[in-house]
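By convention, the token line describes the chain's fold. To illustrate:
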Amino acid sequence: MDHPIKSDHNRFRKIVKGKLRENLKGFVSQGKQVIPKGKDQFTIPMPSIEIPRFKFGGKSEGGVGQGDGQEGQPVQGDGEKGEGKPEKAGQDEGQKQLEVNFSLEELASILSEELELPNIQPKGSSQIDATVNKYTSIGTTGPDSLRHLKRTYKQSLKRQVSMGLYDADNPVILPTRKDYRFRASQSKIEKQNNAVVIYMMDVSGSMGDEQKEIVRTESFWINLWLKHQYKDIEVRYIIHDATAKEVEEEVFFKTRESGGTLISSAYKLCRDIIKEDYPVSDWNIYPFHFSDGDNWSSDDTKICLDLLNTEILPVSNMFGYGQVESRYGSGQFYKDLFAAYNEKTENIVLSKIKNRDAILDSIKEFLGKGK
């Protein structure tokens, strides 16, 4: 039977998860930050949850602090008329925001239920051989950090009993070095599907902070879902204006340039990264491109379409183009892609992201095919 505190804790977590599920769209659209905390653990700031309390009767029934009187009028006894604000800052603690830890599995489950996402079917049958070390046996040698205390105690007890050294009236067990037992690992080869996500983003002057924040939020939830589906994922980041370069994640979301836009520069770099590091027989490949839809010329758009058709789409599980609305962007690139591809092209998804409220709908468009 569970301890009452454990039962209360489990009930509280159900309430919190229910709150997050109910308010997921508002949570995502407001750009609330999900903070990684260790491996596959995340901390989320939650709205306060009201504690149940007694409710007293109405004013007509009387009670302390009720009845006739004017605002600022002192109660019985000496006193002066109130001024409506304190003389100095308060000393009590302010209201704290509730922070709750969620596992990767819990967040992915909430996202899946909200968006009705299907599980991804990895492309092809090829899998990577991964060497996994599992502590499944006991050995007589090893580092102190892997010492198995229970087995060491048992070995010491057996030795003392067999040698007639054990005193039942004074049961002191003193292990010697020969009694020490250690957890020992065995290497196993496991088959696993791995994935790489390649994010490309236009950082020309027309892509402002608001657009980048939308991309940051959307990419987090896409990554979370893919981590839930695959044993391991790698993430690469490409920024571009008239030229493209690979950067770290922090630089990806903070860079802003003032030059023009040649989208083909990003697609060429994406192609090169895939060719050099991710053989299609071993990897599930997910390129995502975010832009406000401006491109330098129709000639460059033709180059982009050729790169997609011959180099990127044939090796990708799914290619996603997300067009983030900007007052300075023409949105023409979405129109060009829409004219070139239709629903028969299964591994390309086009999504218009008008504002923060459209983020969840866009994620569903990208991940809803189960590719």
